[in-house]
Amino acid sequence: MDHFALRGGVMHAEDVPLPVIAQEVGTPVYVYSRATLERHARVFRDALAPLGDVHLAFAVKSNPNLAVLKVMQREGYGADVVSGGELMRALAAGMAPADIVFSGVGKTRAELLLGLEKRIGQFNIESREEGRELAELAAEMGVEAQATLRINPDVDAGTHEKISTGRAENKFGIPLVHAREAFAELAGLEGLNLRGVAVHIGSQLLDLSPLEAAFEKVGALVANLREAGHNVTHVDLGGGLGVPYKAGENPPSPAEYGAMVARVTKGWGVHLTFEPGRVIAGNAGVLLTRVVRVKRGGNGPPFVIVDAAMNDLARPALYGAWHDFEAVEPSGERMTANIVGPICETGDTFARDRECDALQSGELAVFRTAGAYGATMASSYNSRGFVAEVMVDGSQWAVVADRIAPETISDAERVPEWLE
Ligand SMILES: *Cc1c(COP(=O)(O)O)cnc(C)c1O
Description:
Elements: E1 4-7, E2 10-13, E3 16-17, H1 18-25, E4 29-33, H2 34-47, E5 55-59, H3 66-74, E6 78-81, H4 84-92, E7 100-102, H5 109-117, E8 122-125, H6 128-141, E9 145-152, E10 174-175, H7 176-187, E11 192-198, H8 209-227, E12 234-236, H9 254-265, E13 271-274, H10 278-281, E14 285-295, E15 303-306, H11 315-319, E16 325-327, E17 334-340, E18 349-357, E19 364-367, E20 388-393, E21 396-401, H12 406-410
Parallel strand pairs: 4-20, 5-6, 5-13, 6-7, 7-8, 8-9, 9-10, 9-11, 11-12, 12-13, 15-17
Antiparallel strand pairs: 1-2, 2-3, 4-14, 14-15, 14-19, 16-19, 17-18, 20-21
Helix pairs in contact: 2-9, 5-6, 7-8, 8-9
The structure holds pyridoxal-5'-phosphate (PLP).
Pyridoxal-5'-phosphate binds at residues 59, 61-62, 80, 82, 103, 200, 203, 238-241, 275-279, 372.
Cofactor: pyridoxal 5'-phosphate
Family: Belongs to the Orn/Lys/Arg decarboxylase class-II family. LysA subfamily.
Domain Orn/DAP/Arg decarboxylase 2 C-terminal: 30-371
């Protein structure tokens, strides 16, 4: 459930009519709903209540905007970060270092050091090499890094191949067959408190069974490690729960997910961490755009050319992803259209042969479910600058990320003297 709905024929974000935002900030612009973020944060937390005291770490990569992180911080969430930049954002949003989990297959030495200096709560180690390096750095600093070993359970998440992370051929985690050996080596290192295991098999999962299969494997590994004499106190079950992008898509609810986790982890006797991203932020944002013009006369349906493009919302170009597309002030008439951006790439296509609200030049529309993996994937391709972001809270709203003009980006560029 979200807070983007028609009122008196005009789409609102909570109590704010979207045309007001378009008028004052311009388009394209991402619009986030605080109430929706909070609702999702609470629904997810409530769904896990039967598990007792769990740690919730919002996956910052899904939406790293500082205002969004602040909402999550106020809801009691920590952060799952995958870079030094995300780590600094989580701290800037007021998250406690102890509530920060550092994931990612390519943490640099500088990033490991940063995490140690900030005394973050947990490193999810993705290779023996990384574990050794982290242990060495921590020992030099005279501290102990809290860590889990990320394993690759080799299950097919049944999601898009580019967001699947838990198959043997993916770069993430340590293959299960090597997990015991790797754990034994790293657990013995000074500077490291290897206290458990982590798993994350992919994103936009629409079925619980791959997650359940992965968690079963984690449970067996925990038992194994304990038999081998290791003290296993923490397990991180990652993120990955899908959201509905289009009618008919019925991802498992957080409650169903929570019930499955409770069943599978019964008796593990560990402290659990979760890293939800999309399920919190996805439906809490829309990308508001204006139709530049409608181009007719080709072979197929007309092209509705909007002022948002693949540089602002990459998911359709990247994954062939579907985003519902709706007029902000629908007339009631419908059309079939190809919805495209202005960028000089055929890939800059949001939808083909889409049945949607009839739209004309100058009218406003939204791409829904754009709150996760939206603005954060933006680029300045075609020298379009970076899209602005707004957060709505009831009847108030604020710009939470300025639009960055193409000139600001080119200001950072230089023509060397020898070219002048
Ligand atoms: C991306 C990612 C997440 C969040 O995934 P969602 O599908 O957005 O919930 C969690 N953990 C790790 C390690 C990730 O890479």
